[in-house]
Amino acid sequence: MRQAEADAEAQEKPGRLIVISNRIPTDEVPAGGLVYAIHEALNDIGGLWIGAGTPSDEAQEGLTEVKSEAYDKATFSLSRTEYDRYYLGYSNSVLWPLFHHRADLLSVYERDFEAYREVNRRVARAVAEIARPDDMIWIQDYHFLMLAREMRDLGLKNRIGLFLHIPFPNASDILALPQGPQIANWLAAHDLVGLQTQRDVAAARETLRRDPDCEAMGNGNWLFRGREFAVLSFPIGIDAEEFARKAAESPVPELQLSPDAPLLLGVDRLDYSKGLVHRFRGFGAYLEQRSQHGTRPTFLQIAPVSREDVSAYQDIREELERAAGSINGAYADLDWTPIRYVRRHVARERLAALFRRANVALVTPLADGMNLVAKEFVAAQNPDDPGVLILSHFAGAAEQMQAALMVNPFDHGNFAHAIDRALHMSLAERQDRHASLRENVFKQDIAWWTRTYLNRLSRVPAYQEDRPRD
Ligand code: ADP
């Protein structure tokens, strides 16, 4: 189609939203905050949701339509080798550890990067085939950092946004990435790069400033080889109303605990970024110093395994089992197991009810983009008798949730002290802290997040190839 015809068509039809994420939900109405929020946005605006298909022997060009009612869904194809190299390899054994400040865990192989580039290129070609000039393209997360650059190279002039759900790495961590010098170029291909926190924006600024082609313009705007783009923070939220309702209405699962026994709760995917071993040791330090005559708290950690095909995830599993065993060995009694470690996935209703029953939540990652569990715990509480959130400085949520009891997960003494304080906190202090946390969790919820991001992206002026925007 010639440009004039494409422009005329775009004027007739309002632009669609094209979302690209690693996975697309299979349910007609998906459960879970982010996928539900994207589902709602697509329902409102109309458009297309693209995600990876099931890996097969050989990858195919283009998109495969998936049956869906309100808006379109499609998958791009991945070969099994690409799944190993692009997904398990470059995405989850290079970018994930690096962006979580674990350069020591990197497994760098050129062939993994080549597969990552190939998948990003194939998706770019597929989108370029179907995108209309007025469509807004919203890329999700670290699996597609090069996608916008590849789309621009194919001539796409659409509004393109990226939201990175994980932390942005420090400039010194990026030195460990062979492709580090290209990151500014990849980011600059978007119109809007959304990050979780101000801390992430500051880290990105450090990297962009080092690039000779990048110039800071203030207010989060940058100029890269004459083209403007923005890097701003949009802290993601949860569907707080829905989660609070679930927590109030669902029965608490049977725990074999007396109703007034103090319950500490941790809920995480089993991932080295979540600080689970540090958490177990911090709880161990608390047990060491607690009065033998006080109440005996139970710490329930729910942590289903994830990414089992990546070796760093097998190591953490064994380390955690050893830590739980040795702490229980030292402190358990005939009628008391201090740490209960459950590897099962728990249904959302049961999880919400458990959050409400818990006296204390331990949300203590060593690095985390946001951490939605912190927000879910707050939403689930009974405001008249709320539990206490113990939150790590290193969760993205810490920026909005300073009314939590803040801890340094590396400092076991500090951790033990926070648990003691939480278990003895007065009702008035619990209520005060909770009211302040709750206000933010309900106000900046997931609908606020999608709305704010998409409003900003839709206000980007039309694409200018070689001349800065006004
Ligand atoms: P991440 O995206 O790194 O896993 P988040 O805390 O941001 O971490 O989001 C995790 C989501 O998964 C939350 O909505 C949480 O309730 C859910 N979740 C975590 N662990 C479990 C579990 N054991 N069973 C069910 N849901 C879980």
TrEMBL record:
It comes from the Bacteria. Gene3D superfamilies: Glycogen Phosphorylase B (3.40.50.2000). InterPro entries: Glyco_trans_20 (IPR001830). Its EC number is 2.4.1.15. GO terms for molecular function: alpha,alpha-trehalose-phosphate synthase (UDP-forming) activity. One of its GO terms (biological process) is trehalose biosynthetic process. The keyword Glycosyltransferase applies. Keywords: Glycosyltransferase, Transferase. Belongs to the glycosyltransferase 20 family. This is Alpha,alpha-trehalose-phosphate synthase [UDP-forming]. The lineage of its organism: Bacteria, Pseudomonadati, Pseudomonadota, Alphaproteobacteria, Rhodobacterales.
